Structure prediction request, 847 residues.
Amino acid sequence: MTFADSGNKRVTVTGPTGLLHFLASRRMAVMRSSMELKHTEVPSSTVEDATPAPVFVDDRITVYAFPIHAEHATTEPTDEKSPSEAGPSIPAKRKRSSSPAGPSKRPPTKAASDHELDESVATAEDAIHPDEAEAAADTDTPDYNTLCDTDPQKWRTLIVNSMFPLQGPELTPEEEFAIRKRTRREQKMRENYLRAGLPIPPALRQPSTAPSSQPKFTAIRSDRGRRLPRFTYGPEGRATLCYVLVGPTGRGHFDREKAELLQVPRGPERARLTKGETVKFMVDDGAGNKIERTVTPEECMGPPEIPRAMVLLDVPTPSHIPDVVKSFTQNPFYSEFHSNPATDPREPVVHVVYHLCGKGVLEDERYKAFMRGFPEDTHQVVSSREHGDDRVVFSRAAYNQLRLGLLDPDMFPLPTHRPGPRRDLSSIPGLPARVEHLRHSCHVELRPAREPCIDPFAKPDFFTPVIEAGAGTWVPEDVHRAFLKAKKKISKVKEVGREPRSGDNVEIVPLGTCSALASLYRNASSTLVRIPGHGSILLDAGEGTWGQLARLYGDDGQDTVTGVWEVLRDLRCIFASHMHGDHHLGLSKILAMRKLLDPAPTQPLYFIGLPSHIIYLEEHSELEDLGLNQADGNGVIAISGNHLRWNPKNSKEQQRRDIPEHILLRRQEKTQQDVENMYNALGLKCFTTVDVAHRTKCYGTVIEHRDGWRIVFSADTMPSNKLVEAGQNATLLIHEATMADDQEEMAHDKAHSTFSQAMKVASDMQAENILLTHFSARYPRMPPTTSLPDSPRASPSPGPHLGLAFDQTRFTIGDMWKMKFYLRAIELNMGDVAQDDDEDTMISSWD
Prediction:
């Protein structure tokens, strides 16, 4: 989607078997009509006795890909089990294969799952009107039920193609926005007719926009509440891909002396020779006669340049070593890249090999012997967590955090980092001579072939050395005075004393505070709520949430007990508010990492989201074990947010009449038991979802604890009266403030809130504290504060304690009163950081 927003019209993605299923599972969150996405799914088996077809070719490079598999026990998975439930698979012998291996041919289950039924009864907003269904049936889109049985891979292809159709003329962003706005208005009018039980007028049955400018998402619309055809890996099991990139064969140098001896005329004939063509021309034989002479390129061209190659090997575990070794010893094509330099100038020479090594791979004697099999002059670059440092990645943001730590080290902790490796490569015996660890900004050029070197044009990093020193941080004089003034005021308030209140010890950790996409200082949306003695709740999980957790709490890679793993083990609930990707695309990564905990969790993790979220997780779990519905009951238990809605009087009208009553009752009983178990685990009195006004179906939430405190989370929304009513007397309101007050019209069009609107919601709700978050990328460092009630430049007014969310800060609700004293100091500090930062900021919008 970032590619599409930056103007790229065509992108090709290559991956292993399951790539199409992976892409199609994102259909309810990821789509762009302005781009075409091509996909190449590499077969699970390779061809041994023929040159494989490249996965990418242009005039400069040719790329080949081959899969490797882990060696497992001899238990073959049955068709009745999902990949997460199935036992280890047998590595199959390599066989001839000229097309991607498809998923299991077992017909998918006809009966819909509970969550598919949930989706069909979700709300009127999600339902497809019969008129729309009839219109969809008139298109040439093949039938779902037919393709599920005959060619499920084709259905996935149709889904992906409809996500990125590149249809119609190229439109400006303003034109696309106008079309989307008009389409949403018409959709809203259709929904109103549906709710009123009135027939939809003919003019509203189809979008009024021209077909050439309005992309057809028929396949997505008709498949919205339905799972993809079920995917299972073949007998080879899950594969990882390795790549070989071959550069061009450069022509030899033109030998002018030989051309003069052969009397090759200057001009077109010499140009044709350099292109590899044979030329004929007339010359004087010395006796005054003209004769025809034929000259081949070999007669006046030097030897061609030997093509250079790069090999990329992804070896996640030692059990993958036998297969990668086999690929370079038994396969006649790839074995040429693992031998001594070729004497044939047309044969490529491997210039560099990149080894992406999982734990224990580099120390394995089999792999070290394999590395030594490459030519001695081959550069071998290793990427391994065990043998590399763990430096600060986003040094500018960390430097800002370091300076704010002078103001309050508890609220602004420095990201964890380790300058040096746990184990140096030189301590591993038996490695090749020309081996080094992957370095930031290190370039290895293939043509002309050069030694690895640091990119001379890379921007120098002035911040990391200061961060690693950890002391002596300099701040400007005015910022230093502001820091001291804020601390002095806080000391005076502490002397007066403050009565302790319920919820004071609940910790709030903003992990991502940007809207749409990450910026230099802010990640996509996510907020962690830590309840002492009970566990944690994660409110949304945008892309990169796991990385934010790991940077804040630390991941030494040695165990799954301390640091971020301890926080992950303590996680009891994840809430996803809506299907926009910046709020949930980091979810599957967190669940996959939870499966790596050792020892395994002894309590379940409850996930609350839309039925669309649950379907997405179920589909993704067929590719990667996410711990859904584990037999021991300590996996991920999904609860549809529809069952927790704040407005129960409308629940009956949301249920479709075509669902048998006994199914509804059984599902409700199970869900109610899961909800009670979640309440007991977290000490909650209730967890309520509230419909809020956004451009798609979206829930806010009210979390009420038995100790008496209440947290309200707005998600993405315009000011919502429902949220105000449901969250009365909140201890803390976490509310989006995407736009500044001068962008009120844009906020309305995008169904977001301005700063002042969020403050009015808090006032109407009579909230004690408000934390503003989800800032537009227009404000990458510090959102405008001049209009906020607690701003030093605004007139003072009574109301809740105001806080602005910054990534990777940590504070308790009981400390939020300090934030209004910090605001001016933070603003001055951010202004100074901005002077040092000349990076451009991308302004975009998820919707």
Remarks:
- The chain has 26 helices and 26 strands.
- The CA atoms of residues 5 and 173 lie 9 Å apart.
